[in-house]
Amino acid sequence: MSARTLPPFDPTDPLGIDDLLDPEELAVRDTVRQWAADRVLPHIADWYERGEIPDIRALARELGAIGALGMSLDGYGCAGASSVQYGLACLELEAADSGIRSLVSVQGSLAMYAIHRYGSEEQKQRWLPSMAAGEAIGCFGLTEPDHGSDPAGMRTTAKREGTDWVLTGRKMWITNGSVAAVAVVWAQTDEGIRGFVVPTSSPGFSAPEIHHKWSLRASVTSELVLDQVRLPADAVLPEVTGLRGPLSCLSHARYGIVWGSMGAARSSFHAALDYAKTREQFGKPIGGFQLTQAKLADMAVELHKGVLLAHHLGRRMDAGRLRAEQISFGKLNNVREAIEICRTARTILGANGISLEYPVMRHATNLESVLTYEGTVEMHQLVLGKALTGLDAFR
């Protein structure tokens, strides 16, 4: 192909990554992008400033209607989408706001995934169709006030009393907690760590909401309190014992973050690019100065490298070849680079960068949470360090 017949350079897709996507993948991406543009972007600054989503349950039903909840799962009303399609959806949702992507991730990749992979047929039939439709919101109780990166030390217990289980303990920083109809809760038992499907209407269960957050403000974050919550024998997830259960769920959710963080970065980059072309200083647009162009070039390089990495991991997941260490590679790189892109975008916008009229500071503060939840930077560095050296440095 001669230079004359090459397509024009596209600043929004400088590497031509869209050429790697098939029509169905592009359709999924565009559907989620349009939904976010219609239902989230006009309101998100207000939701963030208020620290609430006024009708999160209605939003969940809409997400269910477009097939975004549990979308990579098969059956039970789930869309059965590919991993790449799910990743593209996460990118578009987080380009709107990390809190919206977190709602979808926790619902599908944690709560629904746990039930789908490790639950009984009765548990799947009871919960998954309504969760896929957004009629029932789920949450995932693993992190505790004193145990985050070391879940093996959890203090929540489940003890047998006759044929029942009795759960006692607390979970912390739980997305969707106070609006959930069902919680997947992990607890210590005499058999090891087990997962339990807990209807939130159970006596002794409460989920006080956490306020005064400066990050993920357009997201419901709660504590879970389990005060002698009595459950029937069939509440336990029958197909897994030990940390393998919750950690496999986290791997699935972290994969979505690899994509989603690039959505936040893309939104901030585009805001900076548009601003640089219209904001004038010293008689011309600031995008015409070398230092600003250097920032924009570096941001574009890291953004699209990150999208390529997410795409590569998605193809590996669809082929059944994606390892947990590779997901750590993606989360470590992409979230770290996304934060740097947001910070650089803020410098281009100057004082306007801290205003909610632009998305940059909102994305930057949200990503501070994304950086540490579902595995801190240090934990993913140690996962990769162990994989590279064969030596365990966790303790």
UniProtKB/TrEMBL annotation:
Keywords: FAD, Flavoprotein, Oxidoreductase, Transit peptide
EC assignment: 1.3.8.6
Domain Acyl-CoA dehydrogenase/oxidase N-terminal, chain residue ranges per copy: 23-135
Cofactor(s) named in the record: FAD
Segments forming domain Acyl-CoA dehydrogenase/oxidase C-terminal: 242-388
GO terms (BP aspect): fatty acid beta-oxidation using acyl-CoA dehydrogenase; fatty-acyl-CoA biosynthetic process
Enzyme type, top EC level: oxidoreductase
Similarity section: Belongs to the acyl-CoA dehydrogenase family.
Protein name: Glutaryl-CoA dehydrogenase
